[in-house]
Structures are given as C-alpha cells and as structure tokens.
C-alpha cells in the first residue's frame, strides 16, 4: 500500500514550528500495526521507513500493565534489537 501525505508543522515550546508527520488510519491495523506496538523509525536522506519491532512483544505486554515503562524507554533513548 502506498499513500501520499503532507509534511506539516508542529509548534515548538519556544521557537516557532518544526516539521512533522501524522500517520493514522484503518490501514495501520489492516497491515499489522496495533495501538501500543513499538516501531523502529529509520530516517535517511529523502526516505523514512517505519518497521514494527516484533522483538518487543514482551515489552508491549509489560507496557500495557505499566505505561510508565514505555515512557521511560523512550525518554532514555533505549532500543531493543
């Protein structure tokens, strides 16, 4: 599936705006992405890939019981392979 979306803008706390993308729609669920899934974002020149991190199933289950766990992982920039 391919979809064309527009790069938008999101307000920054002090300095105007920054580029942003919003991805939402039934096509996410139809293609295996569920709320709470962890994904890997790969950004290179002129390309963005979003890959479901299937190795994080246990973390996702733990995060459902304690949402602060996923926040901590994100805040500490931790990754799973």
Tell me what portion of residues adopts beta-strand conformation.
Answer: 15-25%
Number of helices: 3
Mean pLDDT: 85
What is the N-to-C order of secondary-structure elements (H for helix, E for strand)? EEHEEHH
Rg: 15 Å
Number of strands: 4
Which structural class matches the secondary elements? alpha+beta
Low-confidence stretches: none
- Estimate the helix proportion, in percent: 25-40%
Describe the protein's topology.
Elements: E1 8-11, E2 17-20, H1 26-30, E3 39-44, E4 47-52, H2 57-65, H3 67-75
Antiparallel strand pairs: 1-2, 3-4
Helix pairs in contact: 2-3
Features:
two-stranded antiparallel sheet
Question: Could you give a short description of this structure?
Answer:
28% of the residues lie in helices and 25% in strands.
Give your account of this protein's structure:
By secondary structure, this protein is of the alpha+beta class. It has one domain. 28% of the residues lie in helices and 25% in strands. It has 3 helices and 4 strands, in the order ββαββαα. A hairpin with a 2-residue loop joins strand 3 (39-44) and strand 4. Helix 2 crosses helix 3 (67-75). The longest helix is centred in the C-terminal third of the chain and has 9 residues, at 57-65. The two termini are 26 Å apart.
């Amino acid at each position: 599936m391919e979809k064309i979306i527009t790069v938008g803008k999101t307000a920054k706390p002090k300095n105007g705006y920054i580029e942003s993308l919003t991805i939402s729609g039934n096509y996410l669920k139809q293609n295996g992405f569920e709320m709470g899934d962890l994904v890997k974002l790969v950004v290179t020149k002129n390309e963005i890939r979003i890959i479901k991190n299937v190795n994080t199933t246990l973390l996702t289950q733990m995060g459902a019981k304690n949402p602060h766990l996923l926040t901590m992982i994100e805040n500490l920039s931790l990754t799973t392979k």
